[in-house]
Amino acid sequence: MKKTMLLVFCLAAVTAFGQDANKVLTTDEQNKVDAALATPAEEPKDTSWTTGGTMGLNFTQTYLDNWASGGQSSISGTVLVSGFAKYAKGKATWDNTIDLAYGLLRQGDSGGVLKTDDRIDFSSKYGHRATEVWYYSALLNFRTQFAPGYNIVNGVQDENQLISDFLAPGYGLLALGMDYKPSSKFTAFISPLTYKLTVVGNQALADAGAFGVEGAQFNDLGEKIADGENLRSELGGFVKMEYKTDLVENVSLQTRIDLFSNYANNPQNIDINWETLISMKINKYLSTTISTQLLYDDDVDVVRGERQEVVDGETITIQDVGPAVQFKEVLAIGFNYKF
User: Fold this and answer.
1) What's the pTM value of the predicted model, to 2 decimals?
2) Which of 25, 83, 186, 273 has the highest Cβ tally under 10 A?
3) Strand, helix or coil at 33?
4) Residue 110: which of 63, 155, 163, 60 has the closest Cα?
């Protein structure tokens, strides 16, 4: 009896299914079916690109009124933007980064505004895997600044003494070599064939021979007979090393150093650009950063000091100008947004 009931139930289900399959659809139902069949399947997301970055705003303000210990009121702010776009697929890698920074300081009642930071730094590196940790690579880098910079005399900015400007200097670098990537924390790019271009777009600075370009030519009367060069080319060797890690929870370290040697002119005098950033996260939007930058370029003269000399009975100040190690340190607490 049970077998008979089961057979009857199966026959009824098959009959109902056959009737539903042979059902004639209405016009609206048929249009919905056709539209569903015509919609292509969603394509898989391209995961070969990784993009992101951070944006920060740091602000400092000090107010003093009848302060017995002395000092000056001040207000300062800095904007920082750092972004990256990285491609990795198969044996190919392509890393692009850009760092922008601009900071201003107003101190006392002088009304003058001083720059505390000014940077444009773009880098693009393409690599093709040679072994497990070595890549054939090409690197393109460009650095300059946003706004003019002026000499500081006795703590006051002298706007009649321009010492830098947008594209004055500008540094372009094209390097071919090998990239060593033993882990995600450390990379070392080594290039025996590197072309470095120095741009001095401001003619007054070019005439003065700033940043290593050939200066203007003058006759015995002091009249300019030939403009200074705006470009300087160098061929040499280049090494770039980068390291990043988490020191402890919410505290990270990033450091990188660039080394360049000009084969044709004093190759023992190596140009150095060493940058370090320590970030300490307070919460989702607040952070503290400590950044340092050490620079040395044998072709860039800076004021290393001053001395007093007596000439014809008058005391004059003579500046000691020449190449020297440049160092900058910034401690900042402010808003930080990661995207």
Assistant:
1) 0.80
2) 273
3) helix
4) 155
